[in-house]
Design goal:
Blueprint lengths: L1 E6 L4 E8 L1 H15 L15 H8 L5 H20 L8 E6 L6 E8 L4 E2 L7 E2 L8 H14 L2 E5 L9 E10 L2 E14 L21 E7 L13 E15 L5 H7 L5 H35 L1 E2 L3 H21 L4 H8 L3 H28 L6 H15 L3 H10 L1 H22 L2 E2 L1
Parallel strand pairs: 6-13
Antiparallel strand pairs: 1-2, 2-4, 3-4, 5-12, 7-11, 8-9, 8-11, 10-11
Amino acid sequence: MSAKWEKKDNHVGVLEVEVDSAKVDQAIDQAFKKVVKRVTVPGFRKGKVPRQIFEQRFGVAVLYEDALDILLPEAYLQAVQETKIEPVSRPDIDIVQIEKGKPLIFKATVTVKPEVQLGEYKGLSIEKKEFAVTADDVQKELENLQKSHAEIIVLDEGTIENGDIVIIDFKGFVDGEPFEGGEAEKYQLEIGSGTFIPGFEEQLIGMHKGEDKEIQVTFPDNYHVEKLAGKRATFKIHLHEIKRKQLPALDDEFAKDISEFNTLDELKADIEKKLKEKAEKDEKIYIEEQVIEQAVANATIDLPTVMVDNEVDALVEDFKQRLQMQGIPYDAYLQLTGSSEAKLRSEMRDKAEKRVRTRLVLEQISKVENIDATEDDIHEEIAKIADSARMDFNQVKQILESHDPQLRALRNDIVVRKTISFLVENSKVA
């Protein structure tokens, strides 16, 4: 087999491939054995038609399509490896010649990875940012714990205050007409949560149990239901019940009730420790994002549209899976948000392009700096996976080695992390 690559523009070219006639004839033989099983000719049992009779009756050309199915995948893959190109999409195949006793010749129009012209990526400046944990941070976290362990009491008297949980009926009208989704009975709402449109929750403050009230609100101009965006609406409210959070005292008993600690001071110390650990992680992420963004911004890449399209596909599929895990049908989500797949794809395009650019730049830096995953790196990562999954190291190793795509993905992840570490190590704080 021979292959020749000719680049036509920045990232599209033609791969011309010639496959030996012996392989073509072998594939035609395999195609005959497959096709003849479905053929019935008078005088012969089904599947038992001799080759000569078959070709006299149907011609050898009827076997070419099945022969191509056998030949093309292997020939294309081999040609890609020989020419060392890196396709990023399915090829557009044009069959130039296929005939018994002659070589197969085909051309594949292929989009390949674009060239990445790196800019400055070493010595990048990181803008300083404080990640210190203060006494106020610890107190706020303690108060959050206090709120999460509050007792909910039902008020027989009194009025709604910010932070209360209320049970209401509501019915909304625009231009005097009720609108879809604007009505509910015995709906539970926390005042101050920002669940409803601006102005709704605030106007409930001061209401008494059993009271009816009309309120006026305006839907935001960017509201997800287009026909309601910017519209003035009236809501009729009936208040069934007011619930209030009764906060526990912040003392040693509180610490004992919600944790393994005996004193409030011990609980505070643990909160401070966890906040500092989180701050360290946040700082690490911040620094990494800074150097990555600068390295990508300094690079020049003419991105093939198909690479961005493929990334959008991946983002949409990931989004659908996350919705499914939450028990939300994708079509129902689009209907409820007044969106469409085309709109969703458009909204994801910038993110997709950023991800593709970042991936290509990090990949190019790793090549230029000879950053690779060593066997020790891979073994260390397998050990982490085995420990996390509570499996034997050799068992995990065997599974990964038997699934080449998974092992490649593991290796790529290691290279990416090492490349990011390289950028951080070679940066400076401004």
